[in-house]
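Technical note accompanying the year-one report. For the benefit of new consortium partners, we illustrate the data format agreed upon in the data management plan: each record pairs a sequence with a structure-token string. No post-processing was applied to the example shown here.
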Amino acid sequence: MAQASFTKDGMAPLAFSVNPHYPGRVTVAGGTVRGNAESGEVYAYEKGAPYSLTELRFEDMPEADYDGGFDYSAKTQGAGTQSLINWFLELSAAEFTYNDPFGRAHAVTFADEKLRFAMTDKGFYEGSVTLREDLD
């Protein structure tokens, strides 16, 4: 099994030291809205393109992967380092490539506006990142 990573032209890649915990959680949205009219009839219409949401749940992520080399006051990543914090702040709305541990590449964006991780008693981080991949 390969290591999960994020890549984008013009940015140093982020190769995670630990893979997301599997099995992962994937939600697929078809872009269709369904409802019931007052008459009781069911209706449906296309509201948008289909997409999937993939939750990457990390346990025991080293500090180097989470925010190592990131200078919070200057909002810059140290030379020769890369971190999840930097990727999230730099690309919160931009598309990048998620290379999963099974050898597949996915064109994704961050689905959430917040990154929620906690430091464990062992000094590592755990939390999840949700990625959105358009399916059309």
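Partners are asked to follow this layout when depositing records. Residues 84-90 form the longest helix (7 residues).
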